[in-house]
Amino acid sequence: MNAESKQPGDATESATPDPTDPGYERHLERSRTMWNRWSDWYTMSERDFEPIREAAIDRLGLESGDRVLEIGCGPGVNFALVREAIGETGRLVAIDYSPEMVAKARDRIERHGWDNVEVHCADATRVDIEGSFDAAVATLSMSIMPDVRAAVGNVHRHLESGKSFVVFDLRPVPEGPARIANPFLRWFLRWYANWNPDGDVLASLRAVFTECTVGETYAAGTAYTVHCRKSVSPEE
Ligand SMILES: C[S@@+](CC[C@H](N)C(=O)[O-])C[C@H]1O[C@@H](n2cnc3c(N)ncnc32)[C@H](O)[C@@H]1O
């Protein structure tokens, strides 16, 4: 494990996806097909990264009553952890683009009787949700977005000043001789998860958020968490 910290100055910059880009829609539709298919098998692997998920959600510093936004929630693997932290008075709004994943997430909500957890079937890059949030989280999903930079901008827009966005994601080996495995890793992530080869999650986070700290890294740096905080404007 290691840690690094970065403080770029540009916190207000944001990007909107180009609706005329045919690659955007192609990527999105491939995600829908792929994740609909995986939704039937996801329970077999959903506990694989449990300690990393717990550490990521812990970094949000959630309190009872907080409003939380989750990006690419899949079948709701993180719901219990978030719900436990925000209690009955908080609100969890989760977004996923795959209708099958959303159906499974809604089943989970119904089974537990969580009436303050809701799931929307939408493209997290473009979705506009009413209200703002005290925290946002994305686990294993930002690197799949059709326009990673715009997706980060959209989360930033929905977050209250001074509040956190925590990301847990996968990437090619960042340094050292193990980078020899990267061509295979890129191919595998694209084949398995519709990973976006043109999106750099860390660079996108750093371009949008003033404070951006890489926390724990695992498996030669291929699995990592990042804690970002939205800056507070001077007049606040
Ligand atoms: C690897 S799964 C991660 C699920 C869950 N967050 C977890 O940690 O297990 C990626 C999820 O991102 C969703 N996804 C992909 N593109 C999306 C988009 N543009 N907007 C919202 N969700 C998206 C997929 O449907 C899929 O459920």
UniProtKB/TrEMBL annotation:
Transmembrane segments: none
Record key words, sorted: Methyltransferase, Transferase
Xref: Gene3D superfamilies: Vaccinia Virus protein VP39
GO MF entry, a single one: methyltransferase activity
Region feature (Disordered): 1-27
Enzyme superclass (EC): transferase
InterPro entries in UniProt: Methyltransf_25, SAM-dependent_MTases_sf
GO process terms (BP): methylation
Protein EC: 2.1.1.-
Domain of life where this protein originates: Archaea
Short name of any one Pfam family annotated for the protein: Methyltransf_25
Methyltransferase domain span: 68-162
UniProt-recorded name of the protein: Class I SAM-dependent methyltransferase
Organism encoding this protein: Natribaculum luteum
